[in-house]
Amino acid sequence: MLKKFDKKDEESGGNSNPFQHLEKSAVLQEARVFNETPINPRKCAHILTKILYLINQGEHLGVMEATESFFAMTKLFQSNDPTLRRMCYLTIKEMSSIAEDVIIVTSSLTKDMTGKDDNYRGPAVRALCQITDSTMLQAIERYMKQAIVDKVPSVSSSALVSSLHLLKTSYDVVKRWVNEAQEAASSDNIMVQYHALGLLYHVRKNDRLAVNKMLSKFTRHGLKSPFAYCLMIRIASKLLEEEAGSRDSPLFDFIESCLRNKHEMVVYEAASAIVNLPNCTAKELAPAVSVLQLFCSSPKAALRYAAVRTLNKVAMKHPSAVTACNLDLENLVTDSNRSIATLAITTLLKTGSESSIDRLMKQISSFMSEISDEFKVVVVQAINALCQKYPRKHAVLMNFLFTMLREEGGFEYKRAIVDCIISIIEENSESKETGLSHLCEFIEDCEFTVLATRILHLLGQEGPKTNNPSKYIRFIYNRVVLEHEEVRAGAVSALAKFGAQNEEMLPSILVLLRRCVMDDDNEVRDRATFYLNVLEQKQKALNAGYILNGLTVSIPGLERALHQYTLEPSEKPFDLKSVPLATAPIIEQRAENVPVAVVKQPEKVAATRQEIFQEQLGAIPEFRGLGPLFKSSPEPVALTELETEYVVRCTKHTFVSHMVFQFDCTNTLNDQILENVTVQMEPTEGYEVIGYVPAKTLVYNQPGTCYTLVALSEEDPTAVACTFSCMMKFTVKDCDPNTGETDDEGYEDEYVLEDLEVTVADHIQRVLKPNFGAAWDEVGDEFEKEETFTLSAIKTLEEAVSNIVKFLGMQPCERSDKVPDNKNSHTLYLAGVFRGGHDLLVRSRLVLTDTVTMQVTARSAEELPVDVIMASVG
Amino acid sequence: MGLFDKLAGWLGLKKKEVHVLCLGLDNSGKTTIINKLKPSNAQTQDIVPTIGFSIEKFKTSSLSFTVFDMSGQGKYRDLWEHYYKEGQAIIFVIDSSDKLRMVVAKEELDTLLNHPDIKHRRLPILFFANKMDLRDAVSSVKVSQLLSLENIKDKPWHICASDALKGEGLQEGVDWLQGQMQAMKT
Description:
CATH topology of chain B: Rossmann fold
Radius of gyration of chain A: 37 Å
Shape of chain A: globular
Largest sheet of chain A: 6 strands, antiparallel
Number of helices of chain A: 37
CATH superfamily of chain B: P-loop containing nucleotide triphosphate hydrolases
Order of helices and strands of chain B: HEHEEEHHEHEH
Strand order of the largest sheet of chain B: 2-3-1-4-5-6
Number of strands of chain B: 6
Shape of chain B: globular
Distance between the termini of chain B: 20 Å
Radius of gyration of chain B: 16 Å
Structural class of chain B: alpha/beta
Oligomer: heterodimer
Strand content of chain B: 15-25%
Helix content of chain B: 25-40%
């Protein structure tokens, strides 16, 4: 009803809505007309409409007001005007939750529901079920059962749908109506059959066996209603999904048989169900795809749209299966419906061969301006996928993307394009120059701050490495002149990066930065002054440390440390090395089909986790003198099997010259209490156990924590990797599981845990160096060591790279963890900070012959880390 | 009222409409009485306890009655008062075989008579001492004593014994009511 008015609204510009300025109190005053005799049906219906309008507008009716007008409304039942009566039903439904004693109309509704007028019966059933609660349901149960099997379809449907609603509140009562629903399911009316099936399914939803039985029964007998078939297909595919695997089940056969149904709706539903099944094979897909192919040439636009949309989805997972439809899709490219055409083209882009790309791009650019932003994003995603597939085509695709970039569009759309271009640049070094210059053009006229700063950052990073870096300077400096603060600050940083890496450009950069020092904005001025001073020193190490590779500490950690420092003033200068390092985000493998999605970085959470540990450990007096916490192992290691008497998990904390092992123990026996729990550790190498901090008591199912402190070996500092054998020692006291009372006497006991490994990775924190080369030069070759190894067990470069990264626990830089295809040599750059705060860089050159040969070069400002690396690799 | 309606009224073709409330304890036979008064083709076979109320219509020789048949169950008796204002007459049904609950009926009747919407109006009240066919039923005179009907001074009232299942005594009561309504009009 509301919709009707809204529509009117749109047509005639808002002022014609007769209900626009309704006053609640005035309307309720008007509602007194209901009490008059004789009743004027037209007037009353109009007032009811006003009340309903108010309720739907979100006007709040108090309980008193609502009840009063509700009772007034009940008097309208004496009129036999059909319109008024149906308005009454609507009002009852709307007010059932606001007014009190709505139950008063039960008998009136029951009378209408069992009466002779079919127009009243259906709506009366719906209204009745709306006002009935579970206690009253018993009283009308008999009528409901009759209504479900009524021969008038509208009554039967109403009863079935209302039962479905009642199912939520009174499952047990509605469950008894299954026989009636069963009878209704064999009705000739398509809607009744559909609703009956729906009710039957929801009653049995929790009983897999019953659902299976129901499905097989209906598949045998067949149904008239296409809606019911669609529902069956959905139920079947849901069951198949839960079963996972077995495709030769009768359920799958049923779905497949529906592909030959005479109703298009059912055929489509079946096809889309098959397509959406997880891990579907090409053979199973084939019939579904061929059905969709037929739909592609249907005269109905809705069918064509549905088909091409589904094919588009299939193309993501099984491009080869869709190839057969290419011809039909080609025809749809010129479809007058732009949505269909766009989907057709993007599908073709996913499935098509390299040769057809040029043609398709030309086609799509002809109507790019006519489609909406959402579809444009779809196109961009398709192009991105294409770039990864056919790197050689990047020139065409890039050009296309830039024409798109120049056109009008919203933020989401622009961001998708920029993301896509950046990922192309990263993937494909050939496209770097053109890509960067196009992006430069884009920021000349870019209204989105986020995108502009992002591009500036990229320029600063990639620009200096190109052949002709000077051409970017103009674009960047233009930003300083033209844009607002945030962009200006970004531009200053980018300029400084150019200056740090190019000797010959340095003088001009210095001139530009000096101009920026006069800027209006604090941030811009600060940045410019800082960079200017650093650059004027003309020291490579400074450049690398302060311009190219920024701070690597965790920001909340730094804040805390500084706060601490100001609270306890001391003579010593603040030591940055005491600040915990930011755990470098583990770069997730981007999912193949969503290349433009922003990878969320769990940085903040990781930082706070370490904070918590630091606080916990700092509270224990034994650990006060250990200095700042360097690293905590990211995942606790389980030292027991699951489902054993005691569950113990260990977290390793590394300090400058000590390690603390934190054991989180849980006692899973409810008739025991453990006291004085410690974990005894026996090292194999030069570690020395210093002390234990026991957990006082371990009550059933409440985790407790005990610690073991070990010192690192001083004689042989390179021996960091070690295996500890662990044994839990404790005093057992038996207790009553019910009352928790314990015996006074306890006895000593031991429990053997699994061995705990400490590896090099526990001593190194990952740190991302955005510019590895600069960092490499900064550290210098004072303590450089190089060795060559053969990795006989490893057969591919990818495997070697991932093993090395995992073993050393260092951060791969410059995307060197990705091995390009078809190459038999690769260089991996790893960066980290060794315990004690020394940067540690490892370059490992890999060559693939039959096995992988690895040349490892390690650099650090200290000798120890280098030795440790060499010792551990060897 | 349209012109045609008025014309019909003058000519006596259209009957005057009267709103009647049908009240009484649960299981006293209200719905059965109303059902019996309806034309035989509109009567229902099975009578179930009324929940809330239902509206029924029947006609006599000169009047058209609209009856609000209220539920007599305890929890719904509070809802009667919502309909007092519209009532132009009251039919109060008593189960004359239920001596035990006669006091409850009296209490409800007193509450009704003292309600502000009823108290100062000269509403005709028709009492049906129903179920007179049952063996342990008390006579209508006894019922009127038990309910102290003689104390009702400001309203015309009438009591008649009835058997709603067979329809005995109903016509007598309705004829009295019709007479009262016409008398009040003139």
